[in-house]
Amino acid sequence: MILYLLRRLLGAVGVLFAICAVTFTIFYVLPADAAASACGKTCSPERLLEVRHYMGLDQPVWRQFADYLVGIFAGRDLGTGPHALHCSFPCFGYSYESSLPVWDLLMDRLPVSASLAFGASLMWLVLGLGAGVTAALKKDSLTDRTLMVGAVATASLPVYFTAIMLIYGIVRLTGLLPYPTYTALSDDPLGWASNLLLPWTALALLYAAMYARQSRSSMIEAMAQPYIRTARAKGMPERTVVVKHGLRSGMTPVLTIFGMDLGGLLAGAVITESIFGFPGIGRLFYDALQRADQPVILGVTLLAAFFIVAANLIVDLLYAYVDPRVRY
Prior knowledge:
- The chain is mainly alpha-helical.
- It has two domains: 2-90, no CATH class; 103-327, MetI-like fold, CATH 1.10.3720.10.
- The chain has helices at residues 2-29, 34-39, 45-55, 61-74, 102-137, 142-155, 159-173, 189-223, 226-233, 238-266, 270-276, 281-291, 294-322, and strands at 76-78, 85-87, 94-95, 100-101.
- A hairpin with a 6-residue loop joins β1 and β2 (85-87).
- The longest helix is centred in the middle third of the chain and has 36 residues, at 102-137.
- The radius of gyration is 24 Å and the shape is globular.
C-alpha cells in the first residue's frame, strides 16, 4: 500500500512539473512580447518597460523558467532594486491590471467556486447514482427506459439554457426564491444555501444525467459478474449483494469522472457564475480574458491543473479502498 501511494505521489509531482513547463512555454516563450501580453490592453510604453523588468525577460530562458518554478513553490521578488515587487508563496504571478498578486485574487474568489462545486457535486452524485442504480436493477423495464430518456434529454440541454429557465420559472414566474446573490457561509448559512440552490440545480441536472448513464452501465456489468451469483447463492440479502458487492465494484468508473469534474469546477464554472453573477474564479477568468490580463489567465490555468491533479490523486487512493486488488 505504501509503494502504491508513493508511485501515485511521484506521478502527480511529475505531471505538475510538466504542466508548469507547458504553461511557461505558452505564456512566456511563444508570445512575440510576453511583457505586452501581461501588461494588458491599456499599457503605456513606460509601464511596458517596467513590466518587462519585473518579469525578468532580460534574463536567459532557463533562468526565467527557474525563477518561475521557484516562485510557485517558494515565492520570489519581481524586479530588483527599491521598486521590486514581492510575490509571496505560492507566486502565480502579478496582475499589472489590478496591481495585486494573482494568488490573492484567486483566494478571494475561491470560496465562491468551492461552494458552487461541492454543493453541485453532492447533488449530482445523489441524483445520478440513484437514477443509474435504479435503472440498472430494473433493466429493460419502463422505469429504466423512462430514467434513461430523461437523462439523455437533460444532458442535451446546455447549462446556460437550464440556468435561464430556472431563473425565469422559479424567480420570475413563481417567486419561490429571490434572484441569487452570493452570501458567505459564515455570515448566513441559510442564505448561503438558498442563494446557491439554483446554480447547484443547473449544474447538477447536467452532470447527473451523465452520471446516471455511466453508473447504469457500470452496475449492469458488475451485477453480471460470477461473484454476484455466488453471493446470492450463499443466501445474502439482496441489499447487501447490491450495495456491498455490486455498487462497490461499479463505483470505479464513476470515481474517475468525478475526480475530473470536481477538479475542473473548483477552478470555476465560467458560464454558471457569469449567468448568476457570482464572483467566483470562473467569473475572474472571464473578466481577465476581456481585459487580456495574462497573469490572471495563467494563474487560473495553473490552479485548475492543480485541482484536477489533486482530485485524480485522491481518486487513485479511493480506488485502493473501493477495490483491494488495486493495492497490489
